[in-house]
Amino acid sequence: MQEEKIVDFDALAAELRKLRETVAGVTDSVLAAVDGIPIIADAAEGLDPLKLSALAAADLGIARQASEVCGQGTLKQTVVFSSEGYMAVYAIGRVAVLVVLGDKGLNVGRLLFESRPVIERIGAILAA
Question: Does 75 score more than 80 pLDDT?
């Protein structure tokens, strides 16, 4: 019989909230399984975590294949630059994906810097 893992949702929520509070311009974030099923979200009322998770999983899958085909190693993240903001998608090992949305005022460099330890902590929480 396989033992069921208990995920620490409070710790995950704290990591998402901390990223939003630390990096000016971050508006929403969703953590999902690599298959696009949402795990937890720190998102505005009008945002659909299910749709965003599915989109992020597809983005990650295509980018991961592109990275491998080009021989550029393991994919870490993608960033979409739009006229009204940004969407960053981070691989958390091969088990999860973190999507972070930001407004036009987002400092992308700061997000990329601050997200690395968050990704590592989320990975550790999911692996526990």
Answer: yes
